[in-house]
Amino acid sequence: MSYFQRIALKKFFKYANDNNTIHSDNCNRIYALKEDYLQTIDGVIRFLQGNNPTFARQICTDNFLPEDARFDQLDDMDWAFGSMGMLDKAKHLATLYLEDLSDFIIECIDPNFGFSRYAERLGQSANSFDELYDNLHKDLTYIDRITLKILDHRLQETTPKWVCISVPFPGNLYSAFRCAQFIKQNYPQIVISMGGGFPNTELRSVSDTRVFDFFDYITLDDGELPIELLYNFICSEKKTGTIPELKRTFLLQNGQVVYHNTSKRSDYKQADVGTPDYSDLLLKKYISVIEIANPMHSLWSDGRWNKLTMAHGCYWGKCTFCDISLDYIKIYEPVAAKLLVDRMETLIEQTGENGFHFVDEAAPPALMKAVALEIIKRKLVVTWWTNIRFEKNFTKDLCLLLKASGCIAVSGGLEVASDRLLKLIDKGVTVAQVAQVTRNFTEANIMVHAY
Ligand code: SF4
């Protein structure tokens, strides 16, 4: 069940009213308009799922959607969308409408609620596990109960031996632990492990044994080989009790947290890791939102982008503020252009989507050029964007070629607009160079976002 569904919303309003949790003017107003919200919510969600585009015309009509505090900050709609950008304008208005509802949930139902994150603050105090641990021993929250109901349903449907939970950000950490806790309590035979961006950066020196009340294993960095070795171990018929050779894996042994990295096998090469498989994801149910009326910003939340990487790691690997000692930055390994475009074709077939976000640390210009030529050679119609360094190799000609292949945007780190500081952080670019390169992109009609 989605949080944003008539039936769920009805329960939210009832819970807030029964428990007397509606205090601010803002939430009182939303509650007063509850019939309007209930009447419009399912249509708005269907629209944001990409169905019923004609609904945009209604959404853009004055007073069709109930409006609360989020609409006070409405940008200049004509500047942002013109008079014809009806679809995007409606998406933006529908997003503000959902954000109003989200404010209501935060104030009246569960203060940890967020659109794409939950209890993020608890994940940010990672130095100490105490606060998170305490919260995990409090009663389930309203949102926990929804999450765990879905989890339970999926576990009964699939009866897994092993559940791997990927935790990319602090905003996923609490729920990951809640899910692991639920599995340990109700399905103690299931093995649970954690991997992903959060442990890769924040749990490299985990030593708190309480973490392993929830998870049996934590693996770091590239997951393929650590998971394969763990899989062989978990599934082996004759367990001897001794731990076999593992790769970058934490576990609890004799009451101590131990790091196992004894396997001599090398990680899988990028050429051998295969194409991501999205077939089990409910892609049709995802919503596209436009939180800020800025075309570049909306790329992160609007539309469904197939995710790929052109290269593992960063070819520069020198910036002083960056985690350059970690494998996911340090080990640079590009994928051949032909193979990449093969993977793009496979993903288009699998998902029906021809948009790609290359989630590189910094995509190399030479490889971007080779990929662009391959796309053009195969006459593929695709739309793509990626993260880059503002290299002087991005000449006007190269930018035009990238545009011709479907590149619509790039983002890159400027970090600071001072040559003195850029030198000190070893960024390898100058302000003048960034200005020239961003101009080349802009003149080729490729949007630029600088961090
Ligand atoms: S270019 Fe980006 S990824 Fe590469 S070292 Fe610098 S900050 Fe790190």
Kindly describe this structure.
With 451 residues, the protein is of the alpha/beta class. Helix content is 42%, strand content 11%. It contains 18 helices and twelve strands. The strands form three sheets. It has a five-stranded mixed β-sheet, with helices on both faces. A five-stranded parallel β-sheet has the order 6-9-10-11-12. Strands 7-8 form a two-stranded antiparallel sheet. Helix 1 (6-18) packs antiparallel against helix 3 (34-48) and helix 14 crosses helix 15. It starts with 5 loop residues before the first helix and ends with a strand. Bound molecules: iron/sulfur cluster. Residues 314, 316-319, 322, 324, 329, 361-362, 389, 413 line the site of iron/sulfur cluster.
Given as residue ranges, the uncertain stretches (5+ residues, pLDDT < 50) are: none
Mean pLDDT: 92
Which CATH first-tier class of the largest domain would you pick? Alpha Beta
Which fold name corresponds to the CATH topology of the largest domain? TIM Barrel
Distance between the termini: 36 Å
Oligomer: single chain
In total, how many domains does the architecture comprise?
Answer: 3
**Ligands bound here?**
iron/sulfur cluster
Count of alpha/pi helices? 18
Number of E-state strands: 12
- What CATH architecture label of the largest domain applies? Alpha-Beta Barrel
Q: What topology, given as strand order, has the largest sheet? A: 1-2-3-4-5
Coarse morphology: globular
Q: What sequence of helices (H) and strands (E) makes up the elements?
A: HHHHHHHHHEHEHEHEEEEHEHEHEHEHHE
Radius of gyration: 24 Å
Give a quick account of the main beta sheet: strands, pairing sense, barrel closure. 5 strands, mixed
What would you give as the CATH superfamily of the largest domain?
Aldolase class I
Taken as a percent bin, the fraction of beta residues is 5-15%
Helix content: 40-55%
Structural class: alpha/beta
